[in-house]
Amino acid sequence: MTVLVAIKAVATVDEEFELADDGLDVAPEFVERELNEWDSYAVEAALRLRESGALDEEIVLVTVGDEDAEEALRAGLAMGADRAVRVWDDSLPGVLGPLAAARLLAAVAAEMSPSLVLCGAQSADAAYGATGVALAAYLKLPHAAVVRELSYSADAIEVTRELEGGLLQRLRLRTPAVLTVQTGINEPRYATLRAIKQAEAKELDLTDPASLGVAIGDLPEAVLDRVYVPAVEGAAEMLEGTPDEVAARIAEVVEREMAA
Amino acid sequence: MMTRGEAPADGPYAVLFEPVEVGPVTLRNRFYATPQCSGFGADRPHAQAYHRAMKAAGGFAVVHTEWCAIHPEADEWPAVTGRLWDEDDARNLGLMVEMVHAEGALAGVQLGFNGAHSENLETRRPARGITQVPSNTFHFHSCYEMTEAEIVELQGFYVEAALRAREVGFDVINVCANENAGIPLQFLMRAYNRRDDRYGGPFENRARFLLELLERLRGALGDSCALTVRLAVETHHDGDLGMRPEHEARRVIEMADDLVDLWDLEVTGRSMAEWGESAGPSRFHREGYQLAAVEKARSATAKPVVNVGRFVHPEAMVDAVRRGVIDLVGMARPGIADPFLPTKIRENRVDEIRECIGCNICISRYEQKATIVCTQNATIGEEYRRGWNPERFEPAADADRDVLVIGAGPAGMECALVLARRGMRRVHLVDRERELGGHLRWVTQLPGLGEWARVVDYRKIALAKLRNATFVPGTELSAADVLEYGAELVVVANGSSWARDGLNGFDHAPIRGADASLPHVLVPEQVMVEGKPVPDGPVLVYDCEGYYMAASLAERLAREGREVTFVTPFAEVAPYMDYTLEAIGMNRLLRGLGVALVPQHRVAEVAAGAVRGHHVHDEAADVEWPVAATVLCTQRVSDAHLFRTLEADPEGLEQAGIEGLYRIGDCFVPRIAAESVFEGHRLGREIDSPDPSEPLGFPRERLLV
Ligand SMILES: Cc1cc2nc3c(=O)[nH]c(=O)nc-3n(C[C@H](O)[C@H](O)[C@H](O)COP(=O)(O)O)c2cc1C
Ligand code: SF4
User: Fold this and answer.
1) Which of B112, B272, B539, B584 could form an SS bridge with B67, CB 3.0 to 4.6 Å?
2) What is the C-alpha R_g of chain B?
3) Looking at the complex, does the CB of residue B449 fall below 8 Å from at least one CB of chain A?
4) Alpha-carbon distances, residue B174 vs B112, B158, B207, B327, B690 (angstroms)
């Protein structure tokens, strides 16, 4: 049996950047890819469940992404995951929506019938917060999102979730289940250089939508129009002068804005 | 003459990049590197030239020499200064001029003659003074009182030196009248000038020397160079004995304004020894600390004004310029800590500035007659002999290696940073604590040392930008863990700890009863990090180290309302602070806080309720201090165990694939942070040398027979 951890290689953009010519993304030379922060908590959660003896299963990472996503998979392997699967086809759009990604991840999961599926609560770049939930829907499994604490036994999982206003919620789920985890659920480990090297040498499994029985044309996909930097609205006013003058000017501005 | 152009930047700091006319020359921007000793002096012309040229390359508009003796009667040896005694001295400085010009900046020279303060130990000449009074800085040393003819002759020395400087291409000729070091300043002050002839008495007479001097210099130089004066506007004397900005300073500025092209105005102390008022340590002085005094004198002149004050923040510089206090931003230390400060501001890379922390370690080396170093900038002074440029790093020949650096203190952080910049495949910087900094994490919590955190901040920001560098917090590695870790190169930098048994360099032995596992005996880490309570009642702080730790802990405890006795075998409190110009202020501060200062005393036994000791030169003169607690600052002991264990296991290292094992910083030898940073940097620069543990040699500037 398997614990499946779905991860994403998120884009981090340099402080100064330009957009790609097609206007659909930041130009690739300004982008680096790394393991999504939330997903590193998910990997850690899986490792801890196994280390605590609650689960004794193979930990498999899965992602949908091009070759640049491999570094993120290897980061998870270096932490201690056993195996990694990458789903890709060059005809997939570069920026994949959460439903499409979840559809492909579900196809991988279906082949493994995992006892637990973990995801990060959201991705640092697109921030939909939807992939894990959609995955649960495709797999028709119970799920809990934004999990802060978790304990596992053979037939049930207990989780604590964060709600608005500082409230916590305690849930029990049947297994198998899909959980999306929040940062802070644990403290992800740093891989040693040795583990990083070993992860580098590992074979990654590569598969494509066709082999999973998914037609790319059927993927639920919103159409991306463009990515852009909003025009700056309103202007900052630099106040100069003696402290008294500046204070008087601030009072003026506050009065004006309150009246408006 | 206009120097190589510089596109005026836009944005909030643009005003700093406006050109400024100074007499016949134009400065390309407002960044002005003031005269500053380097330890290279007249004997190391290459090191001198490369050192100055780095500031020019970093974007300063004008770069000055250090104080240059104009004549063999101004011989400061063994202090290291520049010299313009003859054409050969000038020719050697000419290399600096050439290299500074090549970087598009102007070259300035400071003309110095210190009168009674020149010991003339090399030339063995009698010192020429204004009034026969011994030096207040170099004791056991007096001078003869010049006749009027000898005064005129002295002015001639200045003119000849200035012409020699012009001959080799200097653009700015600066007359030193600051820091009690320039005889023109001494003439102005009653404290030095008790004459009753044309050069003494009323202020007009006391100003005569400077006015005549400037007239003669102007006459000789014409419009070929800018003529500037570095003037102390405030000397902190009582009454009218010295300089006050609103009185003596304003008057002399008004009288001489037509003769000079720029005023470099500064604040200083009562004696040369008190130049910590001018080069203020961060312990006592904030950024821009001289502006208030300079502002009082500023309106007396129509000429451009420069002032210093550890300026590192462009906002503070812009503000001082906008307010009209200064036209040029003077800098010595900020440009030592980061010669490329102007360029980084112009290119909006402010977060990349290595900000000066105001520790005055650069000055300590001058005071020790050594070459310059800096806590923040390991490359300073190494421009020529090691060929280091703070902004340039060669890819390492063994860049395909992974490096493990253990310990994220000053040495480890710097080493990791240099290695990452040199493109090593992966650099893991591992520390048992959650944050970077090593001992600086808590040292910066001591009173007055907050700015020292910039050592950590700079490296934290820089490391975060490097993708091949990873900080691994909260991880303590055993020797076995290190072998398992998977690095080809291992650098141990795990620091040192304060001796818990009183071991010290005076007794060469521990102290009886000194055992920090007892409740009434404490060491600095226990007070600052471990939260061990200091038992209620009077506290004795025992210092055998002589720098900041004991003094700062005494200050902290006194501020908490404790009754504190400070005992040290040294002749004075915190003698290393003499070198950093903090000693006078620190003594004043501790006295003011009511700390009982007991120098020249040794502690022989620490017991519960009492500490016993005696005078260093008289064992019979024993003393007992009834105290509830003792804080021991006797010496630091290297945490050498990890390195030693690894070193003793060559087979283990080989099996683990570890090709190189090195140690740097306090775990090797406990020293000041500047030396740890240097050692980390050095290893990083030489990681691909045949034997990185052995520093590469460097050319020495010496005469060969
Ligand atoms: C190492 C060192 C050497 C100095 N030597 C001289 C000197 O030779 N002549 C001089 O006028 N000022 C000298 N100064 C003082 C500086 O020019 C400057 O006035 C002072 O350091 C305050 O400026 P800062 O805060 O920018 O460092 C020296 C300063 C330092 C740090
Ligand atoms: S040694 Fe200290 S005071 Fe001197 S320049 Fe460097 S950081 Fe500043």
Assistant:
1) B112
2) 27
3) no
4) 9, 11, 17, 17, 47
Q: Inspect the interface and report whether the beta carbons of A195 and B486 lie closer than 8 Å.
A: yes
In what helix (H) or strand (E) does residue A180 lie, and over which residues does it extend? Answer: strand A178-181
- Ligand nearest to the backbone CA of B376: 2
Query: Looking at the 3D structure of chain B, how many domains does it have?
Result: 3
Q: Is A197–B486 a contact, with Cβ atoms under 8 angstroms apart?
A: yes
- Which amino acid residue places its CA nearest to atom 6 of ligand 2? B374
ipTM over 0.85: yes
Q: Tell me the residue range of the domain where A108 lies.
A: 2-218
Give me the domain span that covers residue B579. Answer: 499-637
- Helix count and strand count (H, E) for chain B: 22, 28
- CA of A241 vs chain B CAs: smallest distance (Å): 9
B276 in a structural domain:
yes
Q: Which pair of structure tokens corresponds to residue B409?
A: 């203190």
Distance in angstroms (rounded) separating the CA atoms of residues B35 and B67: 6
Does residue B487 belong to the interface with chain A, where contact is any CB pair within 8 Å?
Answer: yes
- Name the residue of B30, B31, B32, B36 whose CB sits within 8 Å of the most ligand 1 atoms, as the mutation to test its pocket: B36
Neighbours of B617 (CB within 10 A): 8
Q: Whose CA is nearest to atom 4 of ligand 1?
A: B36
* pLDDT, tens digit (0-9, with 9 covering 90-100), for A149-160: 999 887 889 999
Asked if residue B694 belongs to a domain, the reply is no
In terms of C-beta density within 10 A (0-12 exposed, 13-18 middle, 19 or more buried), how is residue B187 classed?
Answer: buried
At residue A59, φ and ψ (nearest 5 deg) are -105, 120
Asked, for residue B372, whether it belongs to a domain, the answer is no
| Ligand 2 contact, B677 CB (< 6 A) | no
A38 within some domain? yes
pLDDT by residue (tens digit) across B534-581? 999 999 999 999 999 999 999 999 999 999 999 999 999 999 999 999
Which residues of A are less than 8 Å from B404 in CB distance? 193
- CA–centroid distance, B449 to ligand 1, in Å, is 21
Is the Cβ of B600 closer than 8 Å to some Cβ of chain A? no
Distance of CA A135 from the midpoint of ligand 1 (Å): 67
What's the length of chain B? 705
Atom 2, ligand 2: residue with shortest CA distance:
B359
Helix, strand, coil shares, percent, chain A, to 5: 35, 25, 40
A68 vs B: CB within 8 A: no
Number of A:B CB contacts under 8 A?
26
In angstroms, the separation between the Cα of residue B485 and the nearest Cα of chain A is 5
Strands A156-162 and A178-181, by their bridges, are: unpaired
pLDDT digits (tens, 9 = 90+) for B620-667: 999 999 999 999 999 999 999 999 999 999 999 999 999 999 999 999
The reply to whether omega before A176 is within 30° of 0 (cis) is yes
CATH number for the domain harbouring residue B538: 3.50.50.60
Chain A CB within 8 Å of residue B224 CB: no
Chain A: closest CA distance from residue B313 (Å): 18
> Does one domain contain both B429 and B328?
no
Domain of B459, CATH number, reads: 3.40.50.720
Alpha-helix runs per DSSP H in B425-488: 440-443, 454-464, 479-485
- Tell me, yes or no, whether B190 and B319 share the same domain: yes
With an 8 Å Cβ cutoff, is A236 touching chain B? no
Is residue B53 located within the same domain as residue B158?
yes
Q: Are residues B475 and B526 in the same domain?
A: no
Q: Answer yes or no: do B351 and B426 share one domain.
A: no
Look at residue B9 in the predicted model and tell me its pLDDT: 57
**What CATH number is given to the structural domain containing A152?**
3.40.50.620
Q: Which of B637, B664, B697 is the last residue of a domain?
A: B637
Distance from CA of A208 to the nearest CA of B (A): 30
B483 and B517 inside one domain: no
Do B486 and A32 make contact, defined as CB atoms within 8 angstroms? no
Structure tokens at B613: 């000791």
Residues B427 and B485 in one domain: yes
